[in-house]
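# nightly structure sweep
# worker-07 picked up a monomer target from the shared queue
# config: single-sequence mode, recycle default, output format = structure tokens
# input follows
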Amino acid sequence: MTAATAVPVTAALVLTGCTLAGPAPRQVDFGFRLDATGNVVVAYPLCAAHEVAGASVYVEATGSGADGDGFTTLWSGRDPATEEAKRGVFVIGTDADFREHEAVKSPLPDGYYVAVTERSGGQEQDGQDHWVTPSRLKGRSLGLDEYLTDKGNTLTRDQINAQAVCAK
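# output follows
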């Protein structure tokens, strides 16, 4: 390829959104709902060969934040205590679903990020994180296996899991 043909090819890749490094990671939607006591329950998209190792709730902060990286962690849990939490459905801000946990540092705001750590084959890795806005649940009626997404869609647990990009 000559310099004269490299410019149009590069321009075509940029204009079509293609990159030579491959596609960007796909953002998936978490589902959320309220339990009987008013706590937020998260449904995390998970592949069959993976399990949840931990979860945290954080917000952006002014300056460096309490975590030193522009964020402040408001709650975290590790080592799922229930099979349901291992499979990606867990309650935020309580000690019900994780053996190790930090108490909520302050009342949770109406919007926050939920980040998940996954385990597969004995190895832990960062999973997805996603914004959750509990006020979107006000006035919404959800079925037993339904969760709301932050985009306002109602999905079942199977539909949430179907978003996960899993190795075949």
